[in-house]
Amino acid sequence: MARILVSMPDKFLESIDKLANIEQRTRSELVREALRTYIKRSNAVKPQQASDNAKILESLLD
Questions:
Q1: Are 27 and 35 in contact (CB under 8 A)?
Q2: C-alpha–C-alpha distance, residues 16 and 22, integer Å
Q3: Is the pTM of this model over 0.85?
């Protein structure tokens, strides 16, 4: 399995870690599931809506 390096704000990472802990799974599992869900939803919607969703996701990381 390949590894990637992703930068994100500390508060966002704290939220991810808190949720992963509550759900008793790893940070990686949680992020993989979130991205799978995002890809699935993006493939099911219009290209413009997928672009809008990407902007929303980006704003959450700021």
A1: no
A2: 10
A3: no
Angle (CA) 21-55-42 rounded to 5° is 75
Question: CA 38, CA 35: separation in Å to the nearest integer?
Answer: 5
Rg of the chain taking only CA atoms, in angstroms: 13
Task: Tell me the two tokens of residue 56.
Answer: 């929303």
pLDDT in tens, 45-59: 677 777 787 788 778
Helices (runs of H) and strands (runs of E) counted in the chain = 3, 0
**Rounded Cα–Cα distance for residues 5 and 56 (Å):** 21
